[in-house]
Every structure is written in structure tokens, then in C-alpha cells.
Amino acid sequence: MNIVFGTYLDSLTWSDKPAAIGELRLGPMGMLGLLETRLGLTGNYVHPARRISQYLQRMQSIDNPGAWFHRSFSADPWSTAKQMLSWRDTLVASGWQDTALPSTSARLQALGDIEAVDLPLSAGREDRLQSIALSLKSGIPAHIETLTLSEPRSILPAIWQQILALLAGQGTHIVESAVPAPQGTTTNLSAIQHALGSLNPPHIDTGDDSLLLISAETEWDAAETLARYLASAPADNSTTTLICQGSSDILDQALQRHGLPQIGASSDSPWRTALQILPLVIANCWEPVDVNRLVELLSLPSPPIRYFAARHLLSALASEPGVGGEAWKNAMEKIGSDYQTKVLDQASGNRKLPSAAEYVQQLEAFLHTERFDPATGIPYRALEERCQWLMEFLGAYADRDSLMAEALSQTSELLHVSASMNHIPRITLERMLDSVIGVGASNPLVQSHAAAYQVVHTPGQVLSPTSTTIWWNFTSNHSGSAAWWSSQERQSLAESGIILEETSAHSLRESRSWQLALQNTSKRLLLFAPRQICGETAYPHPFWDEIRSVALCGENHSHEEAILTALTRHEHQLQQQGRWSLAERRMSLTALSTADLPEPEESCTVQAGAIALGKHLSYSQMSMLIGCPMNWTLKYHAGLRAADAHSLPTGNQMIGSLCHRIVELLYAEPVKQWKPDKAAQKARELFHELTRSMAAELLLEGHEVEIRRYERAIVEAVRKLVDAICRLNLKVEEAERKLEGTLQGTPFIGFADLILRTPAGEPFVLDLKWSYATKYRKEEIEQGSALQLATYNWLMASEEPNTHTGYFLLAQGELLSDSPLLGDEALPSAVPLDTTWQMGQLSFVQSLQGLQSGRVEARGILERKLLENSDVDKLDKLQSERREEMARNKMLYIKPPCGYCDYATLCGMGGSL
Ligand code: SF4
């Protein structure tokens, strides 16, 4: 068997010949596997995370306050064990076997102590290489005839040098392949090739394009340029080698646009959706609840929770962003009944399913009741339950979805590595998870196509001469730094036969691999270097510094600019007057015809009678229909709404709901009357009781100031509300009373926040608002446009003709009303509320008739167009004029709610606000 071996040859095809027998190209992992097979050393190798767990147990068994690693180990046991294990493996790779380590440093002593612990530690890659060396030493033959090295033996890691020497001792013919000699001297490429070897200054021809760095603003521009180059002379591509460094996602799209085969190189990533299931389940084990993580778990495309259950919980979170509150309990009830009808009643076969009560109980436990303190940690039993549940879910997909299979194996691995612990603190569990998931997985949907050009993934894989080499993504990709060892440690280890590799050795191998790509290219080397990748600044590959310094060697400053210009191109420079050209390849470009974006329409037409009112109406619907019929149509007729996952209330909206609930609970007992201080005290208690279910984000770390601020604000709001109620001698009769009426033959429903009773026995409807828009609410009452108050007045009128109404602004503690009960503080109102209602009703009917005739007006756009064609220069002036004109016609004007409308992109208003 003839083997080509090199540091960068893992993942390379076995041979590049049309037909070959007994030939193999192997990197370190491939060679390790082959030698183990030949020497009878194959075994079951464990996940790296399991070795960390084993090493952690060894460290735990000897940990004491005097141990060198004690402080780090106490703070973060997993990361400390991981780091120490990597040092231990480095020593093993450098020749450490059973010998005692020198005691020149506390670190070496600690490593020696851990090694002496009699607890299992599975073999890592370095142990396996040592076993190979031992077997070869004992004379077991590997039967390898020829081994060709793609790099000099002297720059390989010590353990490989030892194995190669042992193989040579068995008769394996070891050949070191030399870097090919440069061909000719007439091009810039060959001049650089000569100069890199000889250090003689090269002659750079400013008219030559055999070696070019092609820069582009983004990876998209660079990909388009590369695809044009390949597409402009497809017949010549058979002598081209393409180094695809990293992912080819964007390049593949450009290649496909030009009818070329795609490369199909996908980078490993831990962020693939299926690989997020386990981390999100783990992130939802902790107290306090992080609603954002909960929403992420419930919104996964394949959540481990049934879709209907995830939907109910998401909609509960959209109204109360926390767990265990009213909305949450209602959602759990719906889940129970849906589970009965959609799952149990339709189940067939013998599979035993949990009952609806068991199903709900398990969800409650995993998402709400069984949460753990991050510092104390999750008990292993609870983690096991969650992992088993997850494995059952993932197992159902594993045979047809490779990413789900990967997630399944990661879950099982996590369970395995944590099995020795009683309680696992959050930090340790998350570190374990990082180790288990590692670099993640590649995209299984990406396919490679057969292509005329040869594709490799690192420059070190360009093993044979090629006419043209294209290096895609010629950018710096720092591969991490080697462990640091003091010179004292190095020296004492060397005296014990453990030779640590110099820190420069890795760089030497890398640099050699870059040169391999350059020296194997005979005609043209094109280096594609985008300046931005995924929006982040990217820098040219460090090999460019070598090429650049060689090219400029011996040149005076005035000539440097010309040389660099000769060696670089920006993709903009490649196209001129409909022609594109790069390095002897050309293409004609055809300009795309452009079309103007359509102007947004102020209305659209639908079939007359197609739009009708729904089963019931409310104040919100009425005001929306008057403000903008398009908004109402999209929301109530078409049923379009933002996803629950994107509607998590926060800030004022969340606090407003919480404050409403506190007031509702304060007055839940009929005719309960409070004094301001007692009410404030109760509000404080309720605030703390309800935060977890209605404003859980405030309990997260970093929100301490915010929670105190909101607590103070809500307690003060309640104190002022109760104070106002007492001052006006009002009695609270009911909170959240449902009021009903009929408009245009359709039931009309409203909920009054508080129904109060005046000393004269008249009702006072109070609407609570958490907003800072005092001016706007005052104006509403003064102008007679407070449609919400007019609606309460109308709904109450059938039973109680003399109803008072008002807003209580919780954040400011201010009562706004035109009721004479307020004395001097009563606001003057231009028109009585029943007139406001009549006007509102007329506007509503007019807007509704417009809809029923088939005309759906987008009033925000209509007003914008009116503004463009009028003498008025500001929108609010125009709106005032429209308000006055409608008032003259006994109708109510409501401003289109464009500022907080979800449909601005749909109607065309988006971007113009
Ligand atoms: S953005 Fe304005 S005009 Fe468009 S639908 Fe919403 S409210 Fe109407």
C-alpha cells in the first residue's frame, strides 16, 4: 500500500487519479485509524466531553484547599478539568507515558498527581498515538510499503516523527515530497515563487496578471466575480484547482446563477435549529424564568412540545409575559382539552400515551414548577427526566433527519457525562453542553456537484501541479494559540524525555501549506479576499503579507505603489462599459431593466359585500375602523397578526397590564373599600406575587434597579388612585365589569376597569391607563373626541342615564374627567359625551359603508397624498383641518394609527414614517 500523508490531508479524496489501486491520501485522523486497524488496536472511543467528565472526577478525588487547581476548580470545575486535560494530552503527545513528571512547577506536579489517581480515563487521540508507537516498537508490522510525506518530516509533531521512524524501521519506504521548483521566470507568479525560496528580489512586471489579490466589498461581490471568471471560459476549468476555505454557501449561489456546479462545502455550526433544542430545554430549567428563552423554545420549528400546546403557551405569554398566571393557567386548560381531542381521541395502536392530566402536569413541571437555583444546580434526576423526554421526541425523527439524530446523540452524551453528579450547577451544565455540542454540525441539505475543476478545502491539499489556482475566501482565519510552557518546564520535561513542540512549529506547518498551493501553480494564482464577511470586517490572509513583503523586497518607495497596483484588483475595476474582464477571461454584461416602485395606493377595491362585521364589536374595533379601514380589514377581517413569539409585551405595556391586574385584585371583593396606605401596602405585596407570572423579565439578573423603580411607580399609582377615590367620596362597586350593547345589529362588548358609585348613587366609569400621554388624553376630553369614554357612557345609558366617566393615568396619578364631581379640576368639554358617541357612530357607519361597497381605504396614505397636494405644510395641521371639517358634518375624526400599526409594510406606508 502506498500512502500520502500530511497534516492537512484529512477530508481529501483518496486519490485524484482517474483509477488507482492501493493508494491512499490520509491526514492525521485517517492515518491514526488505518494504523490502529493494521495493528489490532481499534476500540470504542468516547466523546471528548466524556473524557473531561472522567478527568473532572479524578481532580475531584484529590481536590483540597492546597491543590494547585483548587480555586479555579471551585469556581468552574468543568472548564478547569478541560484545560488541565488538554495540558495532559499535550504532554502525552510529547512522549509522556508512565514516568513521573519533574516537580519543577506546581502545574506539572498537579498533572502528575491527577495522573496517579486510580479512576478511569478513556484514551484520547494522543494516548492512541502512543499505543501505536508501543505496538510498532514491539514489532507488530503495519504492512505499509511506501509513505510519501506532503511536508518535511522534521516539521511534523514529535509523536508522528516517532511513528514514522518506527515504520521506517519496519521497512516502510518514507519519501518526503519536495515543493516543486518554479517553472520559468517570466511571470510575476514565477518571480514570487523563485523569490520565496531564494530571498532574491523578484522582478514584478506591472502589466502581468498571473498573481492577483482580488478584493471586493462583500463576500457576495467576491462570489459573483469568481463565478464570472469560471463561467467565462468553462472549457478551460479542467486545469483549475479551487481552494474553498470555509463555507461555500454564498459562492454556490453565484455559481448556480451562472449555471455552474455548486461546491457544497458547509461549515460546522452549533446554531443549526435542531441543535438548539437541547440548549433551550436546559436554559428553561432555571429560576428566575427567562421568558425570552421560553419563547425561543416554544417557537422552534420542531419544538419538543406539541404544536398546539406551544401555540397556546405563546399566546398566553403574549398577554402575560411570565409563568403561572391567569393566562398561563387558561392555556394549560386549553392544552389539556386539545390533547384529549387531538391526540388521545384519535390515537390508534398499542402505544401507551399519557393521559391529558399527566401530559399537562409534565409540561407544568418542565416549564413552570420544577425550576432550579442556578448556583445549587439541577438534581441529576430532574436532568435525566428532561433528557429522557427529549430523547423520546428526537428519537421519532432521528432515522430521517440527520440533525435530529445528532441532537439525540448529544442529549444522550450530556446525560452520560453528568451521571456522576448529584446536583449540576448551571455554569457547569452549560460548559458541559458546550463540550458536548462542540463545533456543531454541517448543513445536511448542502450537496456537492461534480465539476470540471478540482476542489480542495485547504492550501495544504494542493498536492499536484495545477495550471490555475483560485483561493476562495483568502482571509485571515486565526486558528488559536498553543499552550504556553515556561522555559523551565520545557527544560525539565526535555530532561525526562518529554519534548514539547516549539510554539512556532504549528505556524511553520501552516506557512509550508500555503507555499504548497503557490508553488504547485504554474500559470495563475487568484486570491479572492472580501473586505466584509457577514457584515464584519475581514482582513486578507496572512500569506498575503509574505507575498507582499517578497514582492516589495529591494524596491524603493516610489515603485512600491506601482507594484501593489499590479498585484491587486478591486472587483469594480473589472467592469467597464458593459464588458467584464479578469486575467484573460472576458464576459459581456447586460444591464437589467429597472422598474419604478409602485406608489402606495390610498385605497384598494374588493368585491362589494365581501367585507362584513364579525360576531361582535368593541371600542378598539370601532376606533380602528374609523381611523383606518385598511388596518381594521387586515386585522379583523383577514385575521393577519404578528406572531405571538414577536409580541412579547415589555416596558410600559407589561407594567400597565400588571398594574391593571393589581387594581382588579384589590377590588375583587365586592364593595371592598381601601384607604390609600393600606392599598399601597397590598399593591406592594401583589406586585411581588404577580411579577413572576406577568413581568418575569424583571426578575432576571441585571434588572434590580428596574424592578425597584417599577415597584415604587405601581405602589404610588395605586395610592394615588385610592386617594382620588376616597377624596371624591366614591365607592368602588366592581372591577372589570362586562358592558354590552348593540351597534348596527352587532353585539358590542366593553369592559370597564372600575365601576364606582357617587354619593348621589350615580355610576362613575373609570378607565385606567398606564401611559405618559397626559396631553393627548386631556385634549380628547376637551375637544369632545374621547370615544372610549363616550362608549362607556352609551353602554351604561340603557340602565343608568347619569353616568360619569374619566381616565385615571396611573403613571402620573392623575384623574381626567369632565364630571362636575371634580369641581375646579373638571375638564371643560366642547361637546357632551352622547354627542361624541353620535358623531363616532356616524363616522363608523360611513367607514363601514365604504368597506361594504368594496373600497378599503388606507387613511394614512390618503392623508399623505392630501398633504402633498395641499397648501398645508404639516400633517398635524392637515389632520386638524380634517377634524374640523368632519365635526361640521357631525362626524368624529380619529387619526390613522400609522405610528404603531403592524401593517405599514403591507399597505405601502412602511419606510415613509
Ligand atoms: S400604516 Fe397607516 S395607512 Fe397603513 S394600514 Fe396602518 S394605519 Fe392604515
Automatic annotation (TrEMBL):
Transmembrane segments: none annotated. Residues 616-907 form the PD-(D/E)XK endonuclease-like domain. One of its GO terms (molecular function) is exonuclease activity. InterPro entries: PDDEXK-like_dom_sf, PDDEXK_AddAB-type. It holds the Pfam family PDDEXK_1. Keywords: Exonuclease, Hydrolase, Nuclease. This is RecB family exonuclease.
